[in-house]
Amino acid sequence: MSILKNLPFEWLVGLRYTRAGRRSGRNSFISFISLISMAGIALGVAALIVVLSVMNGFQKEVLDRMVAVLSHIEVSDASGAMNDWQSVAKEAFKNKAVKGAAPYTFSQALLMREDNLRPVFVRGVLPQEEPKVSDVGSQVIAGKFDDLRPGEFNIVLGVEVARALDVRIGDKVTVGALQGQVTPAGVVPRLKPFRVVGIFDSGEYEYNSTLALIHIDDAEKMFHLDAPMGVRLKVQDMHKAPQVAHELAGTMSGDLLLRDWSQQNRTWFAAVQTEKKMMFLILALIVAVAAFNLVSTLVMTVTDKQADIAILRTLGASPFSIMKIFMIQGAIIGLLGTAIGVGMGVLVALNIDVIVPFIEHLFGVKFLSSDVYLISELPSDLQWSDVNIIGWVSVILSFLATLYPSWAGARVRPAEALRYE
To answer: By CB count within 10 A, which of 10, 55, 254, 398 is most buried?
Structure first.
């Protein structure tokens, strides 16, 4: 109580106006409208935090699955062949952020089995080195990744490719190179039978339906390559891959081309970022509507308190002091609503893996069916930077909403306000 007594009178009056009035039904109604405004801000802030956390969760889940198949950084030679990939990898390891390296080739081809055709990307890999840069070896659900041995012309298919061609472990598929072979009879396609020794499921439909893996020696023979096309690198933190790629570009020798995972999936990444920004703007409108409800609340308060304003002006209060009273009242409502909303949003976002299954069990529904969606559980990735931005946006909007009513209260003329009192 002693702390309150030491506050400036603007704070004391503003705090008093925020509390519910007991003697006047009109005051109670105004306080009820204030509570509704506070609840609207809280719900808007909480919804914004939860939705952005879920979007971040989906992005992280998909990105983890993509990078499990792709590499963090690809280093290729401008000539199309890297004769000494070990030296390039050794040079890359001078950067402490690089944790793994493996050679690769990459070509387009057609897979054929009976009347079925399937266009795919064929990646040549070294089975003993590939686990250093990707998790595709651990994603094999049938057969063995290590059965990719040189000279045996074995192949590992994505699960959707295998389903489309109706093949199983041990079946033969014909790989047709898009580059033709010149013969006396003309240009004919290069065809080679491969035996299916593995089927992988990356969790990402795009790669399950378009990717096939063969041994890098077989790829060089099949596609008439003299050497690997480049080296795939894995870094300690995939989010820093663009920065590491930029650093490597300035330190590595030779005519090399470097491309990180964000450049390999530029369209998808840009689409996700745009979607997140638009969702933020759309949901921020909810917070804006709730915040600007403060305008009507404060306008009603100013109208109801005109006699109080006149008395304060008569006692020597300046127009700016009157303005501060109503700005404090609106700011308190906005701050409390924001704080409650942040608390609710963070609590839900951190426990969404418990809340969603409870709701599904309670109402007997399934939001993400495993038969339809690749992700059967609602993911959440709370980022405190988002929470910080949302909180400040809510507070600023609430403050802006107080300006006009406070200015209107400061313009009340004491003589006119007290004329009919």
So the answer is: 398
Sort residue 254 into left (φ over 0), alpha (ψ -120 to 50) or beta.
left
Strands 116-125 and 256-260, by their bridges, are: unpaired
| Alpha carbon 330 to its chain's center | 34
> What b/e string do you get for 71-96 counting C-beta neighbours within 10 Å, with b at 16 or more?
bbbbbbbeeebbeebeebbebbeeee
**Beta strand 98-113 with 154-158: parallel, antiparallel or unpaired?**
unpaired
65 CB contacts (<8 Å, ≥6 apart)?
Answer: 202, 203, 204
Using alpha carbons, select from 212, 229, 228, 221 the residue that is nearest to residue 110.
212
pTM for this structure?
0.69
Could you give phi then psi for residue 315, rounded to 5 degrees? -80, 0
For residue 411, being part of any structural domain is answered with yes
258 and 245 in contact (C-beta within 8 Å)?
A: yes
Place of tokens 């609207």: 40
pLDDT digits (tens, 9 = 90+) for 49-98: 998 898 888 888 777 777 777 788 999 888 888 888 899 999 999 999 99
336 Cβ neighbours under 8 A, 6+ residues apart: 38
Tell me the residue range of the domain where 378 lies: 8-63+269-418
Are 98 and 228 found together in one domain?
Answer: yes
Both 209 and 321 in one domain: the answer is: no
**300-314: per-residue pLDDT in tens?**
777 777 777 777 777
